[in-house]
Amino acid sequence: MSKALAVSRYSLLELWRRRILLVLVLVAVGLIAGTGLTPHLAPGFRSDDDRTYFILDTLSRLVGLAASLCAYAVGMTIINHDLDSGTAVALFAKPVSRAGYALGKLVTAGGVLVAIAALLGGGAVLLVALNGGGHVEPVFWFAAATAANIVLLLILLMILTVYINNIVAAVIVFAFNYVDGVVVSAYTLVQENLITSPPLQWIVKSLYWGLPHPLYSDLQRDIVRLQFRNAPAFITPAMKQSTIDHTVAASSTADVAFWLAYLAVLCGLLVLAVRRKQV
Description:
By secondary structure, the chain is mainly α. 80% of the residues lie in helices and 0% in strands.
């Protein structure tokens, strides 16, 4: 354990020296502050609902994007940099087990990303609270779900960079993430019986419970409800409810348990990848 902590400290210093994360976080915090000021300074926001909708919709995109960029920045370099520079050879020559090395890297990378997600999520919660509140809980859970999602993305990247170029690994994970989102959307349609073909339902359900699908909060449904609050008269209550039902809902307990299982599997695969890597 002491060797893993030593690797963790070394990795944290390396990430700090590169300043990449610091720049990303500062830009994201600045954009969050700008999101809060824009509805009060720019014209066109006629009501509190308009301002709240803008803030929630922008935050839902901004926090997720900033956290994902940080995950890519960390995951692409935290192991790959050691392999390319030869640092891994020097570390493995010392009394540092490969499992301890992988654990130290995982603790550092995961801890940094969770801290970043907490910072961005805390800023978002504060912004919503200052704007009148009412949506603090879904924003909080959105930040928590974002942290969980980027941790899986991070570990996938770390595993791939043990074997292949980090740019190629990032492209693969990006494509995988996109497909994952499509599967989640298709699964929502299956749950609402909009996909009625039994074979197609089986395929979608198999993919959904076979891939590490992301966790969600009810934030997106809150945003849709705000959209409809001042909707034209021709949009009936049934149409509104149908749209809300087709929007991805908060993840269930089963989804969280599935995420934990996938986390354990990916952590095991990372340790295995590092142990089998020839350096």
